Backbone:
């Protein structure tokens, strides 16, 4: 990064860029996983409506990494009550972290993970959770670097 990125909450003006980054992420997932067919994501209302719904719901916190006014990455999270079996009353679930191709491997995702910890503490969450696709070694490395560990695997089967 030639200039240090700043972290801000997503605004309506950020939606088009965040939506474009989300489509980039969806394309990667659909190429590597049979759990997210792209047609389903398009039927679900597309990336713009996804961002608008998150912006309107106070349980979601979407943070943008910016260089100047340019969004170079974002992270969507949701703060919810934690299940009773966890040693925490609230949890912060990291839904997505996406970095623009031009900003990858420059510490942007690390800044976002650190911001997630700040948001979790602010909200009184005692744990941070995220799902990582088996093929996504970069995300596994990122979360391991920041002290996260694999607790269990979630297996899926879609039923018709």
Residues:
């Amino acid at each position: 990064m030639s200039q240090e990125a700043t972290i801000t909450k997503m605004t309506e003006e950020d939606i088009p860029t965040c939506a474009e980054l989300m489509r980039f992420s969806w394309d990667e997932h659909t190429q590597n996983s049979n759990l997210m067919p792209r047609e389903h994501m398009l039927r679900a209302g597309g990336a713009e409506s996804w961002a608008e719904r998150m912006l309107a719901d106070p349980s979601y916190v979407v943070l943008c990494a910016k260089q100047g006014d340019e969004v170079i990455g974002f992270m969507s999270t949701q703060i919810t009550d934690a299940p009773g079996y966890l040693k925490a009353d609230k949890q912060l679930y990291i839904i997505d972290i996406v970095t623009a191709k031009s900003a990858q491997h420059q510490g942007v995702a690390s800044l976002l993970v650190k911001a997630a910890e700040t948001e979790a503490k602010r909200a009184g969450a005692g744990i941070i959770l995220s799902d990582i696709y088996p093929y996504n070694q970069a995300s596994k490395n990122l979360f391991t670097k920041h002290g996260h560990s694999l607790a269990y695997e979630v297996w899926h089967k879609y039923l018709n």
Q: What stands out?
A: Residues 19 and 48 are 5 Å apart (CA to CA). The radius of gyration is 16 Å.
